[in-house]
Amino acid sequence: QTGKFTYDPGFTSTASCESGLTYIDGDAGVLLHRGYPIDQLAEQSSFMEVAYLLLNHELPNKDELDKFTYTISRHTMLHEQLATFYRGFRRDAHPMAIMCGVVGALSAFYHDSTDITDPQQRMIASHRLIAKMPTIAAMAYKYSVGQPFLYPDNSLSYTGNFLRMTFGVPAEEYEVDPVIEAAMDKIFILHADHEQNASTSTVRLAGSSGANPFACIAAGIACLWGPAHGGANEAALNMLREIGHPDRIPEYIARAKNKDDPFRLMGFGHRVYKNFDPRAKVLSKAATEVLDKLGISDPVLDTARELERIALSDQYFIDKKLYPNVDFYSGVILSAIGFPTTMFTVLFALARTVGWVAQWNEMISDPDQKIGRPRQLYTGPTQRDYVPVGQR
Ligand code: SDX
C-alpha cells in the first residue's frame, strides 16, 4: 500500500486515539513506523535513527542524527543519589522491580523537565528518559550480580555504551563486539514502538491526567512486566529450556490446547497479529545469524524451530491464527549475548521507552487532548435501599 492511510468513514472505530507513529495490519503482518517497514529499519537503520524518526516524524540526515545522538549522550549519567537508591533493594530483587522503582524515582529528581505545557521541557524529559534507561538497566544488572556500577562512556555508541556498562568491569578494558552491538541495536529497533499496546496505553492514560512524565513511564514499565505482554520474552525462553528437547514438544502443545490448563505457549499469539509478527520473522533470521557469528550452538534454538514447525501445522493454532510473536526468538539472541532471562524484559522496556515517550509527546502536544476515561458495561445489581446491619 502507498500513500496516506485513512479510516473508512463507515468504520465504527473502537480506536482509543489517533496516532501517526506506528501502523499495524494484523491480518497481513505489516508494521510500519511513520511509513517505513520494520524489516527495512531493522536491517538498515540504527536505534538512534528510529528514535529520532518516532520523536520527529522524519528520518534524520547525518547532521541531525549526530546532533540528536550528542544531545542524548548529554543525559546518560544518573544523579549520584539514585545510585544510593539502588542499595535499598534486596540483591535478589527482579531487575524489573528495580527499574520500576528507579524510573519512578526520577520524578523526584528532574524538576526542570516536568512542566508538560512547555514543549522544550517535554523534549528534555524525553531525551533524559531515552538516555538514562541504558544506565538504569545496566545498574540493575550490576546490582543483581554484585558488581560495581560503571559510569557511561559517551565516546561509545548508545548501544555500545549500554553493553560496556552492563558487561564491563573496572579491572579491565571492555571491547564492544560489533556483532553483539549490531544484534543489540536491531533488537532495540524491533522493540521501539508498537501502536497502542497495553503498556503504551498505560503511559497515555497516566499522561492524560498531566502526571509527571517520569512517573508515567514507570507505569508503562509496570504494565510491560506482565507475562502476557513484555514479560513473555523471559517466560518464552524459560519455557523452551523447560521443554528441553524436541521430543517433549507434543506434551506442551497438548497443554496449550487444553482449555482447562492455564498454560499458554509463551511467545505465541497476539491481540492484533493474526499472521506472522513481522518482528518475529526478523528475529528468527537474526537468531541463526548471531549464533553462527558468535560460534554458539544453543539447542534451545532447535527446540524453538521445531516448536514453531509443529504448532504452525496444528489445526488448533491454524484455526486460532496463532503465530510466533516478537518474544519467541528474542530470548535466544539475548541469552547468546550473555543476559540472564531476568534482564530480557528490562531490555524490552529500555527500547520501548522511545515509543512510550514519542506516544506521550504526540498525545500531550495535542491541544484538544482530554483526560482518558474508559467506560464500562455495568453488570452489578440494580438500585436498592440500604438495610441496617442488625436486619441483614
Ligand atoms: C507483546 O499488543 C502488543 O502490541 C504487544 C506487543 C508489543 O510490542 O507491545 O506485541 C508485545 O505483548 C506480544 C505478546 C507476548 N505474549 C505472549 O507471547 C504470551 C502468550 N500469548 C498469549 O498469552 C496470548 O496470545 C496473548 C495474551 C498475547 C493474546 O491473548 P488473547 O487476547 O486471548 O489472544 P486471542 O484472542 O488471539 O486468542 C485466541 C484464542 C483464545 O482461545 P479461545 O478463547 O478462542 O478458546 O487462542 C488462544 C486464546 O486462549 N491463545 C492461545 C495462545 N494465545 C492465544 N492458546 C495457546 N497458546 C497461546 N500462546
TrEMBL record:
Keywords: Acyltransferase, Membrane, Transferase, Transmembrane, Transmembrane helix, Tricarboxylic acid cycle. Pfam families: Citrate_synt (PF00285). Coiled coil: none annotated. GO terms for molecular function: citrate synthase activity. Residues 372-392 are annotated as: Disordered. InterPro entries: Citrate_synth-like_lrg_a-sub (IPR016142), Citrate_synth-like_sm_a-sub (IPR016143), Citrate_synthase (IPR002020), Citrate_synthase_AS (IPR019810), Citrate_synthase_bac-typ (IPR024176), Citrate_synthase_sf (IPR036969), Citrate_synthase_typ-I (IPR010953). Pathway: Carbohydrate metabolism; tricarboxylic acid cycle; isocitrate from oxaloacetate: step 1/2. Belongs to the citrate synthase family. NCBIfam families: cit_synth_I, PRK05614.1. This is Citrate synthase. The lineage of its organism: Bacteria, Pseudomonadati, Pseudomonadota, Alphaproteobacteria, Sphingomonadales. The gene is gltA.
